[in-house]
Write a structure and sequence with these properties.
This protein is of the alpha/beta class. It has one domain: Metallo-beta-lactamase, Chain A. Helices cover about 20% and strands about 25% of the residues. The protein has seven helices and 14 strands. The strands form two sheets. The chain has a seven-stranded mixed beta sheet with strand order 6-5-4-3-2-1-14. Strand 7 and strand 8 form a beta hairpin. The protein is globular. The structure holds zinc ion (2 copies). One zinc ion (ZN) binds next to loops.
């Protein structure tokens, strides 16, 4: 299982000198399990992934003329969907993509994706994208089987509803848990869900001081995001082998400091950065 990070920042793209080290694109993670392509979230990072896929096909590194991909959305907040209209492979007629997201009370994945491209938001509609698109609304606990890969959705703590995903391929286990808030005690559902993961990708957007509003007089409590410290406690409790802190909300210097402090408590910690590749053997 090969995992590659294309967007690691949260809530809004943050390009510029303050994010050169970790990157300023919003969430997108590519997972390759054999020939299967699975993507988590379509934040602005998916544009880079799409351009890379088109390039690889042009130079013959991807041999298939028909690419089938599975895109799992943690939820449908804008930082997780905004890149999709710029995902070049979705304009190629021969390709096919399946889009999965949490079933909402008044929204479906199809409605949200088409609304964000309707007038006056965007010049091209979802229907103008050439690839065949299939939409799937999921409930918590649902599993999707793609050849030998099993992806399970589990509700996590985020305003409006959000999924974490557990990917199992043979003995290998990867968890994608972006956008989840640990209030005080770690979430036992997430711990159970992430049990024995080879790789745990977890929200660690804030420092504990930011979360409580110490120093700047505004608290981020109930915004739906965790501190790096909560991510570490979850990784320890779940006996995860490798923790990747994700959905950054800070500049490079602060993220680097977050990684340093996290490693004191959980040595196998990596702060996600654009271009990071992790192979799970
Ligand atoms: Zn987010
Ligand atoms: Zn969100």
């Amino acid at each position: 299982m090969l995992v590659k990070f294309w967007g690691v920042h949260g809530s809004l793209p943050r390009p510029g000198p303050s994010t050169l080290k970790y990157g300023g694109n919003t969430p997108c993670v590519e997972v390759r399990c054999g020939k299967n392509l699975i993507i988590f979230d379509a934040g602005s990072g998916i544009r880079e992934l799409g351009e890379d896929m088109v390039r690889r096909r042009r130079v013959g590194e991807i041999h298939e003329t028909n690419i089938t991909g599975h895109i799992f959305f943690s939820h449908l907040h804008w930082d997780h969907v905004q890149g999709f209209p710029f995902f070049a492979p979705a304009f190629q007629n021969s390709n096919e993509f399946h889009l999965y997201a949490v079933r909402g009370l008044n929204s479906t994945i199809h409605r949200i994706m088409s609304d964000q491209m309707d007038q006056p938001n965007f010049p091209i509609t979802l229907k103008d994208m050439g690839a065949a698109l299939f939409f799937h609304d999921l409930n918590s606990g649902d599993t999707v089987t793609i050849d030998e890969v099993v992806v399970r959705a589990e509700r996590v703590n985020h305003p409006g509803g959000c999924f974490g995903y557990r990917v199992e391929s043979g003995e290998k286990i990867m968890i994608y848990a972006s956008d989840t808030e640990i209030v005080e005690e770690i979430d036992p559902r997430v711990v159970e869900f992430a049990r024995n993961a080879d790789l745990l990708i977890h929200d660690g957007m804030f420092t504990p001081e930011q979360y409580h509003g110490i120093g700047d007089d505004f608290s981020r409590e109930s915004w739906g995001h965790s501190t790096w410290e909560g991510a570490v406690r979850t990784a320890v409790a779940a006996a995860a082998k490798h923790l990747v802190i994700f959905h950054h909300g800070n500049d490079d210097a602060t993220v680097q400091e977050i990684e340093r402090k996290a490693r004191e408590r959980f040595p196998k910690t990596t702060a996600a950065y654009e271009g990071l590749e992790i192979e799970i053997y």
